[in-house]
Amino acid sequence: MDVSPDVSTATVGATGSAASGTPMLELRGVNAGYGPFRAIFDVSLTVPKGSVLAVLGPNGAGKTTIARVATGLVAPTDGSVLIDGKDVTNRPTYEYARMGVAHAPEGRSVFATLTVAENLELPLRRTRSRAETETEMQRAFDMFPRLGERRKQLAGTLSGGEQRMLSLARAIVEDAQLVVADELSLGLAPIIVDEVYGMLGRIRDQGATLLIIEQHVGHALAIADSVIILDRGAIGFVGSPEGARGELGLATS
Ligand code: ATP
């Protein structure tokens, strides 16, 4: 894919009714990497509140690095990160969390030796009363009955898909405003991917903004309002899911 200079700094357009007001997430001219290695180049994007941005691209394109920048795990070497209009560039990760940013990282990210219920209680303990904690957990179990049935099971014994669901449920109990979901479908059977994406849809319906990082594009395109496709660390395409289908040579619906 050619990366023309005019799109490498493009901003993802606001879409629909979610377009007004302060964006939930903005990256402005971000370069970032690991030591001397630069993984992303001059990335600018805007994610309006309540919308879903899918970041697509092949292995090593820099998708996870964007997720890490958006959650404060990797600091940009240039450019800035704004959460809900506040410049949080170079701020510690806990400040991102305090601003309502939740990260469902690639792979297994739950506390394996704690139960499902304990995994959900943990982030609530310091800030919520026992009654509030119970209410929040019940809300998560109502949304994700499969987890409710397994509330006493050790998280390490859950299937890969159930572990992804648990990390999303954690975002729900934390009342996340921005959920950054990295490669949720990786290694999962298609039917489980459907279920995990169903959860993401419900999280979006509760008003959260989603940044979805995916290598497998079908589900991501189905839920996204806007799409960027990364090519070797730079934005190679920005636009609608339909436009992305054309760019990727997929049948358009
Ligand atoms: P994948 O789909 O394979 O996960 P990706 O698009 O998410 O790829 P990144 O994980 O962002 O890509 O990686 C972008 C580049 O940065 C790659 O060349 C990768 O090798 C490099 N990279 C990622 N993490 C590190 C790290 N911790 N240390 C050094 N280099 C890294």
Task: Give a structural overview.
The chain is an alpha/beta fold and 253 residues long. The strands form two sheets. It has a six-stranded mixed beta sheet with strand order 6-7-8-3-9-10, sandwiched between helices. Helix content is 34%, strand content 24%. The chain is built from ten helices and ten strands. Strand 4 and strand 5 form a beta hairpin. It has helices spanning 5-8, 63-70, 93-98, 116-121, 130-143, 145-148, 160-173, 190-205, 217-223, 241-248, and strands at residues 25-34, 37-47, 52-56, 78-83, 86-87, 101-104, 178-182, 209-214, 226-231, 234-239. The protein binds adenosine-5'-triphosphate. The site of adenosine-5'-triphosphate has 12 residues, from strand 2 and helix 2.
